[in-house]
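STRUCTURE:
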């Protein structure tokens, strides 16, 4: 069997494509990857290219919400189509977004009806945009329709979380979709909690950007401060860093800013000094499982969460944190046995072994229906 994996974003390459590449190679399948040479986060040409992957030269863009970005995505879709159109392929595994890849490779399948296509919906764009007013623009709604109109012409659809299926079920039958979560290697767990008894210590990890809900974070601090003093550890950076720090202080927290921390052991030491990780985003953000929550779970750190869908359900079902509502948190504080439950959840649900098992079942289902 010959497999080609296509991704139009370097973000997904690290979190999804590398595992897919490893899985297919582990079962002896000839596999090629086509990706972009553009760094989406830093908005620059990449310099961390893998020798075994093929990279398509992509048009740069400066803003996430822009005509230039859409033109870049359409151009990438056309160019990667041309790059593989004469290849002998049994399975195309296409990560979405960009939505333009859906239309391009439905056309590819029509020209090559024996090829199997799996669309792997790793994000819902524009639904995940944090600014409601932009979602109503004709250009943005048209962009969503490119995915919705064509996606059912694939052989199977993978979603990164169950939440995405709440939209896609309008266009695709449930039995044609399956959630496969992001995953990681299970590394040795080196946790030695040193939790303060005289205060409640919180951690915020990740980009401090326009999708985090700083107002809700300050409400959480104010509520917890009724019980004990609050300490907020911040790992990360972003355009709203000073706003978060200042508002957290005004709400009564002692703020310890660590900056960007990349060393795993150093991050674990910070997690081990905290009672909870904050998984708080604005309500209009459409995401079921955040990367920061995976980091917290891996570290065995229970979360205070307001993300609906998958993460909300995980917190309820496995008792690995607190789902925040307008009610006070004081009566909801967990005992710290939640740390072992949180790590156990990560190992059982978000491990590479679980990912490989799920992908294997998907492949079996796709080819059984031949």
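SEQUENCE:
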């Amino acid at each position: 069997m010959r497999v080609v994996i296509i991704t139009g974003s370097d973000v997904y390459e690290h979190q999804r494509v590398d595992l897919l590449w490893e899985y297919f190679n582990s079962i002896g399948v000839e596999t090629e990857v086509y990706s972009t040479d553009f760094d989406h986060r830093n908005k620059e040409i990449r310099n961390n290219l893998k020798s075994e992957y093929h990279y398509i030269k992509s048009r740069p863009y400066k803003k996430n919400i822009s005509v230039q970005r859409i033109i870049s995505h359409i151009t990438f879709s056309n160019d990667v189509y041309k790059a593989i159109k004469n290849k002998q392929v049994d399975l195309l595994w296409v990560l979405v977004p960009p939505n333009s890849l859906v239309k391009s490779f439905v056309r590819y399948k029509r020209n090559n009806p024996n090829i199997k296509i799996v669309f792997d919906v790793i994000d819902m764009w524009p639904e995940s945009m944090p600014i409601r007013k932009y979602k109503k623009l004709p250009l943005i709604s048209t962009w969503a329709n490119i995915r919705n109109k064509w996606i059912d012409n694939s052989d199977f659809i993978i979603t990164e979380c169950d939440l995405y299926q709440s939209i896609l079920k309008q266009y695709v039958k449930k039995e044609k979709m399956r959630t496969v979560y992001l995953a990681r290697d299970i590394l040795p767990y080196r946790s030695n909690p040193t939790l303060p008894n005289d205060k409640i210590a919180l951690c915020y990890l990740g980009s401090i950007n326009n999708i985090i809900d700083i107002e809700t974070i300050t409400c959480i601090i104010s509520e917890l401060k009724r019980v004990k003093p609050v300490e907020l550890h911040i790992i990360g950076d972003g355009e709203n860093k000073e706003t978060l720090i200042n508002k957290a202080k005004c709400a009564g927290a002692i703020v310890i800013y660590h900056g960007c921390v990349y060393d795993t052991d150093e991050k674990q030491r910070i997690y081990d000094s905290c009672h909870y990780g904050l998984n708080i985003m604005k309500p209009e953000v459409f995401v079921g499982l955040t990367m920061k929550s995976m980091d917290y779970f891996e570290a065995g750190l229970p979360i205070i969460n307001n993300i609906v869908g998958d993460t909300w359900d995980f917190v309820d079902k496995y008792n690995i944190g607190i789902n925040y509502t307008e009610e006070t948190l004081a009566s909801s504080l967990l005992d710290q046995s939640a740390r072992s439950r949180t790590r156990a959840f990560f190992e059982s649900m978000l491990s590479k072994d679980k990912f490989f098992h799920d992908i294997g079942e998907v492949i079996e289902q796709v080819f059984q229906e031949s």
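REMARK: The CA atoms of residues 122 and 160 lie 5 Å apart.
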